[in-house]
Amino acid sequence: MLSMSDFKEKQILFIQSDDFSAENKIQIVNDNVSFSKNGEIVNRLSCSKILCVFVIGDLSLTTVLIRNCLKAGISIFLLKRNFEVYASLGCVAEGNYLLRQKQYQCQNEFGMAKKIVDNKITNQIELLKKSRKEETENFEKFKEDSSEKIKNAQNEKELLGIEGNASKYFFKLFFEEMDWYKRMPRTKIDHYNILLDIGYTFLFNYIDSLLRIYGFDVYKGFYHKLFFQRKSLTCDVVEPFRCIIDRQLLKSFNLKQINEKDFKYANGKYYLEYNKSQKYTKIFFEAILGNKEEIFLYVKSFYRCIMNEENEFPIFIIK
C-alpha cells in the first residue's frame, strides 16, 4: 500500500502518442525515465519521483520499460484518447483496503454532498462574474441564496433540485451569446451539447483514473448513490470541475474554433464527423491538462479527508 509521502513527493508522468515517431522513444536510462528525440535525450525524470505513468493513445512499450517501472513501484495506466482507462499495470493502491473501509463507513456523506454542490455553484458564479462584470451584484446575491438553501437542505432530492436550478440559471446566462437552448446530456440536440458531452467525458475519465491511483472504490459515491455499473464516486468528484469544460466551450466559441460545418444532422440528432473530432479532442484535452495539478491536489486532499474526517474537505476555485 502506498504511503502518504508517496502522494506528497511524487509526480504523474503523461505520455501522449502524438509526441512519438520512429525517431522518438521513451526508455529507462540510469534509473531515469528518459524521452529521446532523434537519438538525443531531451527530458528525463527520476524513477523515484514518479508515482504513475499515463500513456494516452496508441504507443509501443517495451517489456524492459514495463519491468523497470513495476520494479520501481510505478503504476502504468493505458488510456484511450478520451482518457478512458482500458488497462493498468502494477496498480498497487487498488489493495488499499483501509481507504475503502473508511469510504464505506463514512458518517458525513450528506455533509460532503452539500460541499460538492456548493463548490460547483461557486465556480459557476465565478465564471458568470468574469464574463458579465456589470451584473456581479446579482450573481453574488444568487450565490448567497443558493448557499443558504444548501445549508438548509434536508435530503439528497432537495439538494439535487438546488443544483439543477443553479445549472439552468448558469447555462442560460453564460452561453447566451451562443444562442443557447438548454442542457440535455447525450441527446445530441445541437452541436454545443455534443461538445459539452465530449468535454465532460474527458474530464470524467481523467478524474476516474486519479481516484483509482489512490485505491478508491469509484462505484461507491456519497452524492450520486449506488447504481449498477455507475461510477458514482467519480460522478461526485467531477462536479466542481465541470466549469473547466464550460469555460473552454465559450472560449472556443469566441475564438471561432467551433465550425458548424463539422457537424452533420440525421435521424433527429447531430453528430460530429470522425475526421473532425481530433480538433475538438485537442481543445478539451489541453483544457484539462492545463488544470491537472489542481485536480490532482484536490483528489489528494479528498483522500486525506476520507482517511481522517477531521481533515478539511477540499475546494476547487477556478482561476
How does this model look, in words?
This protein has 319 residues and is of the alpha/beta class. The chain has helices at 4-9, 63-71, 97-104, 109-131, 136-152, 156-174, 191-214, 232-238, 242-254, 277-289, 292-307; strands spanning 11-16, 24-29, 32-37, 40-46, 50-56, 75-79, 85-89, 263-266, 269-272. The protein has a four-stranded mixed beta sheet with strand order 1-5-6-7, with helices on both faces. It has a three-stranded antiparallel beta sheet with strand order 2-3-4. Helix 4 (109-131) packs parallel to helix 6 (156-174), helix 7 packs across helix 10 (277-289) and helix 9 (242-254) crosses helix 10 (277-289). The model has no long low-confidence stretch (mean pLDDT 87).
Describe the structure concisely for a colleague:
Helix content is 49%, strand content 16%.
Number of helices: 11
- Using the CA coordinates, give the radius of gyration: 21 Å
* Protein structure class: alpha/beta
Mean pLDDT: 87
The backbone outline, from C-alpha atoms, is globular
Percent strand equals 15-25%
> What is the CATH class name of the largest domain?
Mainly Alpha
CATH homologous superfamily of the largest domain - what is it? CRISPR-associated endonuclease Cas1, C-terminal domain
How far do the termini sit from each other? Answer: 34 Å
**Number of structural units classed as domains:** 2
Number of strands: 9
Major sheet: arrangement of strands? 1-5-6-7
What would CATH call the architecture of the largest domain?
A: Up-down Bundle
**Helical content class:** 40-55%
Q: What are the segments in which pLDDT stays under 50 over at least 5 consecutive residues?
A: none
Biggest sheet, in brief?
Answer: 4 strands, mixed
Instruction: Provide the CATH topology of the largest domain.
Output: Four Helix Bundle (Hemerythrin (Met), subunit A)
What's the SSE pattern? HEEEEEHEEHHHHHHHEEHH
